[in-house]
Amino acid sequence: MLLLTGHWAPNFMDSMLNHHYGQPHGMDKSPNEWHLNRNSFQIALDGTHAKLAVGFALSSRMQPHLFAPVLAPVLQVSPIGTWLEPEYTCAEYGARIAQAIGEISKLPEPLRSAFTKGIESADNEVSSRRNGFDEHRWAMHGASIWDNEQECSQLQAHLVEASTYMSMIPGVEYKRRTIPTGSDCGVHIEGVGSIVLMQGANHVSSYFYLHRSSFFMDSYSDHMPVLEVSRSVWEKHCCAGKLCESSDGIASVQAFEHNGINYINDGQMFSKDFASCEGWTYRPLEDWDGTTYSYLKQVDAWEDGSLERGDRRGLVVRVNRKIVVIDGAAHFIDTKCRPAASKNTAKSQTADRQPTTETERQPGLF
Q: What does the pLDDT look like over 272-288, one tens digit per residue?
């Protein structure tokens, strides 16, 4: 193990990252906290000093380069229900709403107005369920606050501007996450609830929760880089259909390569002039110490809340006839793309849905 520390480490890190896989799109050069985790590559940067640990355990049989941009913490399966929204009766929701109303007068603007609208929206949802559902427990999956795009954008700008100040106030939690279309951000205030703003391709959506939203939990996607790469590199390798068809077996999938690193494209999105996918890295099965899943077992883990929905880590697949385990991801985007011809697009999507004869079961693996 080689350990490097010192004031020069950030410059060394920047040059190394650019050399191996390019500067991530939209990532601040001097973040307050930037973690990159893998058995072979670990960085912790506090803004002025960095510690770089380089291990040599990564098998060269699967990845042609030593350094791989896996920006996810080690997979830790949570207790059942961890990633699910809590369930309350209408009476319990009413009590939480009353508590929140008592606290919002202490908030500064524009947070006070935003949380007021959020509480009103939550109260309306509870009122619509009271008749016949008073004793029934149900989950409120985020009450929509605004349809007004301008108000959402203004609050988003305020949260970003006041983030440093808010993070110093007891009982207030702020979080921002880089995504392909920009960034999501949110604020949680103890005793009041959470507001989360989700950035879409052309709009911002706002949601209120009467509890600490799962958005504030440590997520596999918190440290994923956003890489600008032509869709021609990754589009034809989408394996969403093969994963679905693998059921409790092992899907044989194709990987694509970017700057010497292999990725698996498990799904993609296209709009008029924007395309994106999540590219998942992997390692040999023998180098994986965590829980392993088949496709169906992983979906079950999403449903019972023991694993964050969308987290592919631990999924076992076959690449080039070798069994591997997905261990981390990066966002790939193409902001210069042009829509493919409709006939070609339909052909590509249909090909992914064809049954594969290479899917097989391996008893005892999951």
A: 788 999 999 999 999 99
Lay out the sheet containing 34-36: strands in order across.
2-6, 50-54, 42-45, 34-36
Give the domain ranges of the chain: 87-216, 226-353
Coil/strand/helix, residue 200: coil
Read off the amino acid at residue 234.
Answer: W
In this prediction, residue 364 carries a pLDDT of 63
Structural element, H or E, at residue 240: helix 240-246
Tokens 């009476």 sit on residue: 91
Q: What angle do CA 325, 327, 329 make, to 5 degrees?
A: 130
Per the listing, tokens 């650019």 go with 18
Q: What is the pTM of this model?
A: 0.72
8 Å CB contact between 356 and 339: no
First to last CA, the chain: 32
Residue 237, classed as helix, strand or coil, is helix
Distance of CA 48 to the CA centre of its chain: 27
